Amino acid sequence: MKVEIQNHVEHLPSALNGMTVSSTHHDPHMLDETCLMLSNLLTRSNRMASKAPTICDGTANAVDAKLSEIDRELSISVITEEDTEPVLDLLKRFFFKDEPLNTYVQLGECKELEKYCTKSLGEHSSYKAVNSRSEIVGVILNGTIMKPQPGDEPPAKLADNCAHPKFRKIMALMDHVDEQFDIFELYPDIDRFLDCKIISVDTNYRGMGIAGMLTDRTLDYASRNGIKLIHVLCSSHFSARVMEKMDFNEVYRLPYADYLVNGEQVFDPEKPHVALRILTKRLDQ
User: Fold this and answer.
1) Tens-binned pLDDT, residue by residue, of the chain (285 aa)
2) Residue 263: how many CB atoms within 10 A of its CB?
3) What is the spatial distance between Cα 87 and Cα 137, in angstroms, rounded to a whole number?
4) DSSP assignment letter at 174
5) Can the peptide bond before residue 272 be classed as cis, meaning omega within 30 degrees of 0?
6) Does the pTM of the predicted model rise above 0.85?
């Protein structure tokens, strides 16, 4: 398979014109990485790289028809409770299958994950990318976490009330991280933070900067509401890269090889997903 790098201007620099990148795997994340690399090279000219398959096997018409379905006229808006079903539809088609830990355990249908994804929609702090056909093609799901106060009951373990055995393994990992790392100890002056729980983009729309646009809108929401810290727990190498490009800093890392239960490694997703990472960004500095 070859990936042709296209540039949305009339002329490319001669060094980049006609560049192709070979790949032996049909990996959309690899295409995103390639597009991100070239977009960085083209920044000075305000150019953007995108991905499209090179036509070489006689199926040009079918592929052209598929590409014509990609609507690049996008808008970013707040998610409301009325969006619950279309948001879940997007997540089931992409995040439930693509997220490294979900993929590794072969999660399948999971009502507990559906509830986890949608429980904070009422805050109106989450955002969607919508094309001109009113289709949701990307989401960022956020929720506010408050600092525990003296006398508060300890929060329940996420895994304790999880009936889905595969998702319970993931929740147990989250509980382990909570035991090892306390963000309020790292930032003692912070009384709340905005937790970016999930970022998911339709695979047909990856490489277009949608995750960055959704994150920008999240940062704007936090600033307007006096929230000084954004927190992201990244199980995916690619989501962590997006955050690093937006000046988030790593404050915690747990290699999957180091997370053992009864002496055995629980998660071993495909590379480059080798660690769970927490990244943060302060908005008052």
Assistant:
1) 433 333 333 344 444 444 444 444 444 444 444 444 444 443 333 433 333 333 344 444 444 444 456 777 899 999 999 999 999 999 999 999 999 999 999 999 999 999 999 999 999 999 999 999 999 999 999 999 999 999 898 888 999 989 999 999 999 999 999 999 999 999 999 999 999 999 999 999 988 999 999 999 999 999 999 999 999 999 999 999 989 999 999 999 999 999 999 999 999 999 999 999 999 999 987
2) 5
3) 9
4) H
5) yes
6) no
* Whole-Å CA distances, 92 to 58, 87, 240, 268, 275: 32, 9, 21, 22, 24
d(CA 72, CA 47): 15
Length reported for the chain: 285
β-pair type (229-234, 192-201): parallel
Q: Strands, E, within 8-135: which ranges? A: 20-22, 49-53, 75-78, 127-130
What is the number of other CB atoms lying within 10 angstroms of the CB of residue 228? Answer: 18
Place of tokens 């790292």: 186
- Name every residue whose Cβ is closer than 8 Å to that of residue 40 and which is 6 or more positions away in sequence: none
